[in-house]
Amino acid sequence: MQLRYNYRISPTPGQRQALSRAFGCARVVFNDALAARLSAFEQKLPYPKDGELSHKLITDAKKTEERAWLSEVSAVVLQQALADLNTAYRNFFSSITGTRKGPKVAQPRFRSRKHNRQAIRFTRNARFQVTGAGRLRLPKIGDVKVSWSRELPAEPSSVTIIKDASGRYFASFVVQTGDHETLPSTDTEVGIDLGLTSFAVTSDGKVIESPKFFRQAERRLKKAQQALSSKQKGSKNWEKARVEVARAHTRVADRRKDFHHKLSTQIIRENQAVCVENLSVKGLSRTRLAKSVHDAGWSSFVNMLEYVNMLEYKAQRHGRTFTRVDRWFPSTRMCSECGAVGEKKPLRVRVWTCPCGAVHDRDINAAKNLLAAGRAERLNACGADGRLRPAEAVSSEAGTHRGAA
After folding, report:
1. Under DSSP, is residue 209 helix (H, G, I), strand (E, B) or coil?
2. Model pLDDT for residues 82-93, shown as the tens digit of each residue
3. Dihedral (C-alpha) 83, 55, 33, 64: value to the nearest 10 degrees?
4. Residues classed as catalytic
5. Model confidence pLDDT, tens digit, residues 218-262
6. In Å, what is the CA distance from 32 to each residue of 61, 280, 317?
7. How far is Cα 65 from Cα 295, in angstroms, rounded to an integer?
8. Cα separation of 302 and 308, whole Å?
9. Dist. CA 176–CA 183, nearest whole Å
């Protein structure tokens, strides 16, 4: 399994200039390659091959007066810029042909020096290394100080240097680890129902309160944004105010990410199987609940990386079972005791009574139904008897329609 390990780095002023130069050179090569391929497409010429672009835009370009400064950075950085363009095109073509899952991917666009995030990548060919003194040695940049929060479990295959919107620098190592780091087995299983009043409710009745980091920092964010809007765009004071706005948003994002990581790790450690609802966060973010949805950070919790579930990848890594339940499954309307499906219930209804006499808390009942549905799907996948039981929920039901709560 490939994992990323991110560390904060502290380059010196000279190293920052060298990194800025590397960012710019990689951006120029990427844009030149994109322009060449767009030009070939417009003129109905054959698609330029990688070797042709590398020879023309890197090797030959270094010999010209206009691009001689490309020699000031590592050639691996420039080659990886071309590799990034190839990846972007592959994703685009796979998306329009339907072979790529997830949202549609747009055509590659030109990079700008004004983008908030800048990045370059070094592979093993660049011969980067971690020195005995704990510094990261990068070609044509030097030994960069790293804040090691934990040890690398293995030799990294590549490292990406990132500068974010707030001006911070990070080193992101790609490390190949064992397929599983199995945790001790446990008999407990849990269903999780995400919410807005509380962040999540589990099938065992545990309520996880929502930290609401954005709302806590909203006043500070508002003042920082007002200060930015009063400055002349492009001036030095405007740039300082922009960085302050970026830092304020970064604090919120970092706190939320830390909360999600700790919570997901705790859930995976304590439970052998985890069942969650496959929510459409993009759709919910278009409703009047948009601010609360984004503040809760459902998308970051359920999808830590693109299409990769934070709980799911940790479950795979530690030998746990993870199940997604269909978003149209009526977890809220179904009685977890008798299995009867009632009418759609508005959000203001937090407690309801089933005709069988059972009194349900809306969220706890939904979590129990998600757990039962996950168990049923798991049994069916294993070829076991997955028939319904009076107290079991099903993953799908005839007559279930869009809009079911």
Report:
1. coil
2. 999 999 999 999
3. 130
4. 193, 277, 363
5. 899 999 999 999 999 989 999 999 999 999 999 988 888 888 888
6. 11, 38, 40
7. 51
8. 8
9. 19
